Amino acid sequence: MTITDLPTTAFWRPGDPIGDREFADVGAVILERGGSLPAVTVAYETWGSLNAARDNAVLVEHALTGDSHVEGPAGPGRPTAGWWDGLIGPGRPLDTDRFFVVASNVLGGCQGTTGPSSEAPDGQPWGGRFPSITIRDQVEVEARLADHLGIDQWAGVLGGSMGGMRAIEWATTHPERVASCIVLASTAYATADQIAWCQPQLLAIRSDPQFHDGNYYGRGVSPSDGLGIARRIAHVTYRHEGELAERFGREAQPGEDPLGPDGRTGRFAVESYLDHHAGKLGARFDANSYLVLSEAMNSHDVGRGRGGVAAALASFAGHLVVAGVDTDRLYPARLSEEVAALRPATTLRHIPSRFGHDGFLIEIDRVGHIIREALARH
Ligand SMILES: CC(=O)SCCNC(=O)CCNC(=O)[C@H](O)C(C)(C)COP(=O)(O)OP(=O)(O)OC[C@H]1O[C@@H](n2cnc3c(N)ncnc32)[C@H](O)[C@@H]1OP(=O)(O)O
Ligand SMILES: N[C@@H](CCO)C(=O)O
Fold first, then answer.
1. How far is it, in rounded angstroms, from Cα 99 to Cα 371?
2. What confidence tens digit (pLDDT) does each residue in 273-285 have?
3. Angle, nearest 10°, between helix axes 192-207 and 224-238?
4. Which residues contact 300 (CB under 8 A, 6 or more apart)?
5. Spacing, Cα 153 to ligand 1 middle (Å)
6. Taking CB atoms and a 6 Å cutoff, what residues make up the pocket around ligand 1?
7. Any idea of the CA torsion for 10, 15, 16, 19, to the nearest 10 degrees?
8. Ranges for the AB hydrolase-1 domain (predicted)?
9. What is the ipTM, given to two decimal places?
């Protein structure tokens, strides 16, 4: 597959099959970086039942390109199978005999919650006009969802990567509303390295001639080349050097010769693998959401304006669990260890994996064990 063969962008629009989604209108939101969104809708899914005391709810926070479909098959309105399939259900780590599990699509996303592809007040898609948002704005919207569901305190808030950013922000902004917080393969603040890896990704999208300053909806085009390049860069950071060496080595993609006379089209197997992931993301994700969410991640710092990370975390009296993947080069395990050092009451766990950052999505048994252990206190 060459770059220009990539499919055009797909995202959820009103009128599409709703799958298992429910929707909550949570009103206008004043944004941290200025401006506002006059009417925010949140798409969410639930598993299990809220008990009479309304104290058994757990919020699962998805990562950059995830959505509310944590568990269950793909199907109409559900472009992908659950991204943590196997973790939610009777007797599972997120045990639906005990817990009411909630997962929403994040503010700025493209699977039903208000984002750049949603309608602005003038009836046209927001597109490039969608305002800059922060992780704190996303948590504000999730707090409104909790209010809508009648949940004063979550038994648990948990997530990996960008989902972990929102989980730790929840514990900091609303310490009284979180009993247990589980932060996987994540960080208390976006590091220089994470911001640096992000920059060429955003430039790739914005440099795509089909980007049109973010106003590509309705033109029959999308900046899929730029989004594909962004995903290739990101995907390498999500995996481990040793894994790529072991899986692909210097092998050529079958039927192709990267060192032959036509070496410009013949690919190494690892290049074909990256092309595949670029194509998959282009088929299920909106480039504008990729930009907005990436910049929200760059904003992340629970200590900003609060006297630093240690002072910010001091307000949280609940149970905090942090776990890093030992081969994660993007969110190295030292960032989890740093949180545990700044807040000594924290439980520190490790996720051994050969897969790097994506280990938090792949090592289901280990992740399930950490979740089960943390929620056993409840
Ligand atoms: C599953 C979802 O996408 S749910 C939606 C939400 N998603 C997320 O939050 C995370 C997005 N997904 C991801 O980041 C990753 O796909 C993961 C972490 C979930 C999966 O990781 P892994 O299971 O290790 O898959 P891996 O990275 O090895 O990729 C396998 C794919 O590469 C393909 N592949 C492997 N080698 C090659 C090659 N040489 N050339 C082309 N394709 C290749 C496989 O055929 C397979 O394709 P498929 O996924 O279409 O079946
Ligand atoms: N593979 C994950 C990595 C981000 O943490 C995603 O696409 O959301």
1. 12
2. 999 999 999 999 9
3. 160
4. 134, 135, 165, 169, 187, 189, 190
5. 35
6. 63, 65-66, 80, 83, 253, 269, 272-273, 276, 280, 355, 358, 361-362
7. 130
8. 57-361
9. 0.93
Alpha-carbon gap, residue 48 to 44, rounded angstroms: 14
**Amino acid, single-letter form, for residue 102:** V
| 274-325: pLDDT as tens digits | 999 999 999 999 999 999 999 999 999 999 999 999 999 999 999 999 999 9
Cα–Cα dist 148/117, whole Å: 24
State the Cα–Cα distance between residues 165 and 184, nearest whole angstrom.
Answer: 9
Would the pTM count as exceeding 0.90?
yes
Residue type, 232: R
Pocket around ligand 2: residues whose beta carbon is below 6 Å from it?
63-66, 161, 238, 357-358, 361
Kindly indicate whether the domain formed by 3-9+194-295 is annotated with CATH number 1.10.10.10. no
E strand map for 232-339? 319-325
The DSSP code sequence of 145-157 is HHHHHT-SSEEEE
- Written as one letter, the residue type at 176 is E
